[in-house]
Amino acid sequence: MVRLLKSYKTEIKPTLEQIQMINKTIGTCRFVYNFFLAHNKEVYEKEKKFVSGMDFSKWLNNIYIKENPEYSWIKEVSSKSVKQSIMNADRAFKRFFKGQSRFPNFKKKGKSDVKMYFVKTDAKVIIPCERHRIKIPTIGWVRIKEKGYIPTNPSTHIIKSGTVSCKAGRYYVSVLIEEQENPQSELNDFGIGIDLGVKDFAITSNGITKKNINKSSRLKKLEKQLKREQRCLSRKYEDYKKRSKKGEATRQNIQKQIAKVQKLHQRINTIRTDYINKSVNEIVKTKPSYITIEDLNVSGMMKNRHLSKAVASQKFYEFRTKLEAKCKETGIELRVVDRWYPSSKLCHECGCIKKDLKLSDREYICECGYRADRDYNASLNLRDAITYKIA
């Protein structure tokens, strides 16, 4: 029997006592993460060596806390969460040593995405989950807002681990479930090419055009509101710096304004993510035998100051990640064409390459008489591409 791992994320409604425990655990994880970074920097400056996450965890629990009892509050929260935050920092250091990322930054309260990790305490014990609630270790039963979203059958769906996170005052649980792989349905004998862009989000070779959600009146209204709230927050900061007496009421007003800005950011991000999920599902449900996309140089596109905001708001990387996961689940072959493949400049009819094609030319006109929309022509060329890699 083939089993696969699948994640589910949904919003929860914890009680006030549970919120206090979640915030306390997240705060402790953030402190331990920063403590590990600072301790490693200090050790490296003195002894020129790196302390691994396992060694730091042993030193923290067996030596440091015993010698400094004022830090005994670290052990008041879940030890699994604390250990996971240490291993996250250890992984960040290893990525830095391999040249895959920059030096890890300290996590700041209110700005960093720190999660509370939980896992099965015993191999024989399962994490129980019902239609409307889930039992999280050290917290207890927590109500779920979206009833019936997380699978509840322990014989076919086993919760391996999970995290609890907080964004803009709302709490979410994400669980990793081991489930039985469903038998894959038969696929059709045609393929689909997808051309991603800024004018339109995605144009497929079978005629489906997904519009740019950022040009909708709904998102434009929210972004306009976000600018207004950000200006208000900036004025409050400037007023706070000029005051000779900085009272508690002024700081509370700033925190309230920060919460407004965070909620708007979260709402905009949720709308974009939901649009990507629906676009991926609409493309995959046609059951093609293969899907071809282009390996876009997103980091290079972000360097263009005229396009950086538009490119970032399209979330191309998230679209590709979710498309890969959906293709693996359904058995569809995902082909990735090299970024230098001239999909836009190539004529789909005669194969001629139009080298003088400009970005402003929205219609492809070839000497052979072929006329088509620029992006649709690119999607056809991606569909029929011969050289590609399997994702």
From TrEMBL:
Residues 1-49 form the Transposase putative helix-turn-helix domain. Residues 176-305 form the Probable transposase IS891/IS1136/IS1341 domain. Residues 219-257 form a coiled coil. Residues 316-382 form the Cas12f1-like TNB domain. Signal peptide: none annotated. GO terms for biological process: DNA recombination; transposition. This is Transposase. The lineage of its organism: Bacteria, Bacillati, Bacillota, Clostridia, Lachnospirales.
